[in-house]
Amino acid sequence: QVQLVESGGDLVQAGGSLRLSCVISGNIFSSDIMGWYRQAPGKQRELVARISSGDFTIYVASVKGRFTISRDNAKNTVYLQMNSLKPEDTAVYYCNLWRTADYWGQGTQVTVSS
Fold this sequence. Notes:
Blueprint: E1 4-7, E2 11-13, E3 18-24, E4 33-39, E5 46-52, E6 56-59, E7 67-72, E8 77-82, E9 91-98, E10 102-104, E11 108-113
Parallel strand pairs: 2-11
Antiparallel strand pairs: 1-3, 3-8, 4-5, 4-9, 5-6, 7-8, 9-10, 9-11
């Protein structure tokens, strides 16, 4: 059974940085599509960034140039480096793996104070 465990969420001031990590039980395959989503209070969950085969990446417009998604297959880990954080980035961040089915982590809270 695939399990995803996120970490790295914290309270940070606007302009600060955080790095989220997502460790996946078992192996990561190059064909896996990994993503980070977030859900703010009262809002729908949205895709933040995704990395797929060949390390092709996409980002939601609001984080382009500030966030970077990466993967380390040897460590079964996906990262989200978040720089220049803004209060509107406050949300619970979820790691997602798609491999013929969707797998989710439990989420990690990111709070950005103004």
